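Dear V.,

Thank you for sending over the compound details. I've combined the ligand you provided, copper (II) ion, with the protein sequence from our construct and run the structure prediction for the complex. I'm sharing the raw inputs here so there's no ambiguity about protonation or stereochemistry in the SMILES, which I know was a concern on your side last time.
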Amino acid sequence: MKLDLAKLPLGEALIAFVLAAVAGTFVLAFTLSSDAGIEDVEPEDGEAVAEETPSDGETAGEGATVDVAMIPAIQFDTVDITVPAGGQVTLTADNVDPGIPHNWAVYTDDSASELIAGTPICTDCTETITFEPPEPGVYFFRCDVHPTQMVGTFVVQ
Ligand SMILES: [Cu+2]
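Below is the predicted structure of the protein with copper (II) ion bound, written out as structure tokens.
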């Protein structure tokens, strides 16, 4: 019984201490969390701003790039041009035939009655145009200044 009497007050004191400690922890935790809560909001807002623009660049990159040159003796450096269907064609016509005006123009056929796309006629110059290719098929291109000497085939596949 002596041991029980000595133990009991100690146990009560221990329980009272623990309860006080728990209550104190709650009060402290509540005070800290209300302060810390405000600070937490800012980093979360920063993360919400994400960059998603690079996907646009990939779509714009589709299409063909064609380089054609007008070279001395009144001729194209190539008479066969093939591009994929869909997307855009970016064509650069480089006139390196000194002092002679040329251009590059593609038509539905060799009657040259229906123009699809063409560069302006110019001398000692480089012109770049961008256009949508027609439906898959075989088309006709020429220089409008030299329509019989400078001709070629434009294929969309
Ligand atoms: Cu020409």
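A first observation: The first strand starts at residue 63 and ends at 71.

Warm regards,
I. M.
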